[in-house]
Amino acid sequence: MNLRLTLPVLLVLLAACSPRAAEQQVDAAAADTVAPAPEPAAVTQPSAAPEAAATAAVAETPDPFEELQRARADAGCEIPDDVYDLDDIRLYCTLPADVRTFLARENTCQHFAGEEPYDDARRAELEQASADYCDGREQRFADLFEQHRDDCSIRGALIDIGNRYDLFTLVAPDPCRAQD
């Protein structure tokens, strides 16, 4: 079954099985025993609105891959495949070359940090990748932070990057200083 069809069906089933729906069924059953049944003209057919709303919600949910591709196309420069975080893609072209290089390296570090060492060969590969891309990352970040201390736009971008990748170990994330 297609995912776009499965989700609306599950949402309709969830709505039907919710505690509120059960209370309404109990209330309706109690009303049937006390009050006479409504006239046929007053009976309304169940609405397809929950299913339509669920389908619309699925249609509005952006595909992450499409969103990444759209961000790459809108970026204004060529972005290396190593940069795969949506926030980093949106930021990449506004940065100087040294920060771009760091950002691509950090994305690669994060990629390998999330991989599983399922055997000894993979463990060795991941350890080498960690040494190549992750070792010294905090110092590199601190150096960039200091190097660009007088440029508020770059410093602001570095603060975002530092917060996203937990890089504020050697430097405090202070706001931009006012220019004298």
Radius of gyration: 27 Å
Q: Can you count the beta strands?
A: 0
What fraction, in percent, of the residue positions are helical? 55-70%
Q: Give the rounded overall mean pLDDT.
A: 77
Please count the helical segments: 9
Work out the strand percent. Answer: under 5%
Q: What class do helices, strands and sheet pairing give? A: mainly alpha
Straight-line N-to-C gap: 64 Å
Reading the helices and strands in chain order gives HHHHHHHHH
- Poorly predicted ranges: 1-7, 28-35
Largest sheet: none
Shape: globular
Give your account of this protein's structure:
- The chain is an all-alpha fold.
- 64% of the residues lie in helices and 0% in strands.
- It has helices at residues 3-17, 19-34, 49-60, 64-74, 86-92, 97-113, 120-133, 137-147, 152-164.
- The model is unreliable at 1-7 and 28-35 (pLDDT under 50).
Brief rundown of the structure:
This protein has helices at residues 3-17, 19-34, 49-60, 64-74, 86-92, 97-113, 120-133, 137-147, 152-164. By secondary structure, the protein is an all-alpha fold.
Keyword list:
mainly alpha, 180 residues
What is the topology?
Blueprint: H1 3-17, H2 19-34, H3 49-60, H4 64-74, H5 86-92, H6 97-113, H7 120-133, H8 137-147, H9 152-164
Helix pairs in contact: 1-3, 6-7, 6-8
